[in-house]
Structures are given as structure tokens and as C-alpha cells.
Write a structure and sequence with these properties.
single chain, about 450 residues, mainly alpha, two-stranded antiparallel sheet, 2 strands, about 0% strand
């Protein structure tokens, strides 16, 4: 199978499969719909792992104009993110089969669930800026129905907010595209950057401002301040399986877009030591601390986890902002760690809500005695996010702190590890307190529910 066919299948097959589910929803054949969705997700994973054999090369798909082309490539970054997305989408999809039984309009949910997967794959395998932007916007439009699924007034308001923040952020990214077209040699993702030294002479300050705005724009998807507010609004109203992929996976599309812009368009050397890099670092640290503090104060379970995502994804962005190989390694490890951990945390929250109907953390006293497996998995994931060794969250944070100390001089150099440490303590407070109350406190009421079944436990 040649590369263009394989990459096109990875991107467009889930989109077409989701569209087919809208046309033929299997409303009265629930088991067949499960089999259909599971087969699509499994085949997507197989195709993604087949792409590991491909050599990274620029593969054009469609010429929009002479200079604007949709193209795919399967470099190491694409393979890493695609594998993570495929595994997480399959696991959460399996979990959703049981969870979504108490929801209506399931055929529409699974249709957009599959189509969003295809759009995400398009972001991942994009070989140039135009392709990235097109699929990034498509991903926003296709994932919005996951937020407004139950069509209540608060869900519709949250979906509008998600759409507004995402489109505004992507428009800043589009502005970056126009400047790179003018001052770069190509918009194809090229390691080290594409800026033309002759063209950028006397325009460095302008381009630094553009680079910072582009980072902020794509950072909206990752919940970076000041475009973070959609996350704590969208998560509480979306189904738990949608919250899991929004937090654990879709936020990483913003991370990948920033990686492509910084390391493959502007170039790390252009940003190192500049006011733009320092401002970016400050924004990430503000987001880390702010998200942790808001999560610590929050009493609604899923909203607490959403604020946690605001904080934790900015750990990744902080590692990228250091522009150092060690911190970059920490950032990529934390992409994997956070995706695995946050998917488990949101699925755990969904399991609690599914069985008990409880949505607030002050309702969970003693619940560990009724749902020991769910709370046990929640606890393991929490320990990872706090950064307890030898779990992956500890390893990623170790490299983030080490890279910060080695790459940044002055106050920002030690502020990074200090903020990460304070955030870890706050993370322990807002996550582990739930475990303590769930296992050690007496139940405030007589619980009449049991542990969830294997459809929900096995993916967790």
C-alpha cells in the first residue's frame, strides 16, 4: 500500500464511517452499532500502526492553487501522536458503549465521535501549514456536537463558547500562516524552521509578535491562558466519554500545532532568548498555577478535572517554551502521561455519575466501599498526575524541571520548578482528598448502587 493511499485512509475513513452512521443510524439495532463503531476504531488503530513503516516524505493530496496544497507526511511526531490518539479513542469508545445507554441520540454522538477522529488524524499527518489549519478547524466543528450532545441550555452555551474560543484561536494561527508565507521559504513543515534571513531583516520584532500570537491562538485548544475558559465550561455538560477525549486527546492537537509552528516554521533558534519566549514561559506558568488553584477550590467533580487539564497541559507548553532538548523530552512524556491519566480520571468520574448520579466531590464520602475498582483506578491515575515516583507523571515532571534549570537564566529559571512543585502539591490536594474521603469517611447516605461492569472497567 503506497503512502498517499494509507494516509488518506487514516484521515478520511473515520470521517466517511461517521457520515455513514448519520445516514444509517441503526436506531433499533444497538448491538450492531456497537460492532460497527468498534470495527472502525480497531481498523483505524491497525492503519495507524501500519503507517509506522512509512518514511517521512511530503505527499501532496490536493492542489488548491499553485502555491496552496493539502499534503500528508508520516514523520516521527505524526506517528507518536497518531498512535496515542488511536489507542485513547478505542479505549474511550469501548467505555462509552455502556455509559451512553442512559443518553439519547447515541447515533449522532458516535457519528461525530468517528468524524472527529478522522479530523484529528488530519491534523497529525498534515505536512504543511495549510493542511494543519484546515483540519484543525474541521476538528473544532466536528467535535462541537460532542459538547452540546444533550441539547440543554447550558450545553448549547458551552458549545458556543467552545466554538468561539477555538475559532478565534485558530484565526490567530491563520494570521501566522500569512506572515510565514511572506517571510518564509515554504510552508512545508521543515525541521529547524523556514524563515528567510534576507526577508526577515529589520522585521524580527514583528515576527516575534506574530509567533507569540500564533502560539496563544493554537494554545486555546490546550487551555493556555488567556484563552482557557472554554474547558471548565464544556467538560461538566458533555458526556464523560466526550470529556475524556476532549481533555486527554483533543487538547493535544493544540500542543502538536504549536510544535509544528515553533520547531518546523519559525524555528527554535529564532525564539530562544527573546521577549516572545519569556512571555510564552510566563503565560504557561500563570496557567499552571491558576488552573491548579481553581481546581483545588472547585466542588463539581468534572469541573475540577477540567481545571486540572488547564494546569497540566500547560506543563507541556512550559516544556516546549523552554526550547531545550531535555524539557522537550519532558513535554512529550507529559503528553503521553496526561492523556492516559486524564482519560482514566474522566472515565472514573463518569462511572461514579453513571452509577450514583453524584456530581459533587462532597457527595463522595464512603463511595469507595461501593465502587472499589473505580476508585482504585482513579487513585492510581491521581498518583501519576501528582508525580509520585516511579509513575510516568514523575518522570515527565523531572525532565521538565531539569530542562528549565538548564535552559533559562535568571528568575524564570528557578520559577519554573517552583511553580511545578506548588502545582504538584495542589494537585495532591484536589485529587487525593477524594480518595481519602471515598475510602476512609463514613457514607453520608445509604448507597443503593454497585460497581460498574466490564465495559467500563476494562478500558479504565
Amino acid at each position: 500500500m503506497n503512502s498517499i493511499l494509507l494516509l488518506s485512509l487514516i484521515v478520511f475513513f473515520p470521517i466517511l464511517a461517521g457520515a455513514g452512521l448519520l445516514l444509517f443510524p441503526f436506531n433499533h439495532v444497538r448491538d450492531f452499532r456497537r460492532i460497527y463503531v468498534l470495527m472502525v476504531l480497531s481498523l483505524n488503530a491497525v492503519l495507524v500502526f501500519l503507517s509506522f513503516s512509512l518514511i517521512a516524505e511530503w505527499t501532496p493530496l490536493l492542489n488548491i492553487t499553485e502555491n496552496l496544497t493539502l499534503a500528508f507526511s508520516a514523520d516521527g511526531w505524526a506517528k507518536l501522536f497518531a498512535a496515542l490518539i488511536a489507542i485513547m479513542w478505542l479505549a474511550v469508545g469501548g467505555y462509552s458503549f455502556e455509559y451512553m445507554q442512559h443518553e439519547e441520540r447515541n447515533e449522532r454522538f458516535y457519528a461525530f465521535y468517528l468524524m472527529t477522529l478522522g479530523a484529528l488524524n488530519g491534523v497529525v499527518y498534515s505536512a504543511n501549514y495549510m493542511s494543519l489549519y484546515c483540519f484543525f478547524e474541521l476538528m473544532t466543528l466536528l467535535s462541537m456536537p460532542l459538547v452540546l450532545h444533550n441539547q440543554k441550555s447550558e450545553s448549547i452555551a458551552a458549545a458556543k463558547k467552545y466554538l468561539l474560543y477555538s475559532i478565534f484561536g485558530a484565526s490567530l494561527g491563520l494570521a501566522g500562516f500569512f506572515f510565514l508565507r511572506t517571510y518564509g521559504t515554504t510552508t512545508v513543515f521543515t525541521a529547524g524552521g523556514v524563515l528567510d534571513p534576507g526577508r526577515i531583516a529589520d522585521h524580527q520584532s514583528l515576527l516575534l509578535g506574530v509567533a507569540l500570537l500564533t502560539i496563544i491562538g493554537f494554545g486555546a485548544k490546550g487551555g493556555m491562558f488567556p484563552l482557557h475558559a472554554w474547558l471548565p465550561t464544556a467538560h461538566p455538560v458533555a458526556p464523560a466519554c466526550a470529556s475524556a477525549v476532549l481533555s486527554g486527546v483533543i487538547t493535544k492537537a493544540g500542543v502538536l500545532a504549536i510544535i509544528r509552528v515553533v520547531f518546523f516554521q519559525f524555528g527554535a533558534d529564532f525564539l530562544i532568548g527573546t521577549w516572545a519566549q519569556q512571555t510564552w514561559i510566563v503565560l504557561t506558568l500563570v496557567t499552571v498555577l491558576m488552573g491548579s488553584m481553581l481546581a483545588y477550590k472547585e466542588k463539581i467533580l468534572k469541573k475540577r478535572l477540567a481545571y486540572s487539564t488547564v494546569s497540566q497541559v500547560s506543563y507541556v507548553l512550559f516544556g516546549l517554551a523552554c526550547l531545550n532538548p531535555i524539557s522537550l523530552l519532558g513535554a512529550i512524556l507529559h503528553v503521553v502521561a496526561h492523556s492516559l491519566i486524564k482519560d482514566v480520571l474522566f472515565m472514573s468520574a463518569g462511572s461514579i455519575i453513571y452509577r450514583s448520579g453524584f456530581t459533587r466531590v462532597d457527595q463522595l464520602d464512603g463511595i469507595g466501599k461501593r465502587m472499589p475498582w473505580t476508585l482504585g483506578l482513579y487513585t492510581i491515575a491521581s498518583l501519576g498526575l501528582i508525580g509520585i515516583p516511579p509513575l510516568l507523571g514523575f518522570v515527565s515532571k523531572w525532565y521538565l524541571a531539569s530542562g528549565s534549570l538548564q535552559s533559562i537564566d535568571g528568575v524564570l529559571g528557578w520559577m519554573g520548578p517552583a511553580v511545578l512543585l506548588v502545582s504538584a502539591l495542589l494537585t495532591a490536594g484536589y485529587l487525593f482528598s477524594i480518595t481519602i474521603h471515598a475510602y476512609l469517611k463514613p457514607a453520608a447516605q445509604n448507597f443503593q448502587f454497585e460497581e460498574v461492569n466490564g465495559w467500563m472497567l476494562v478500558p479504565m
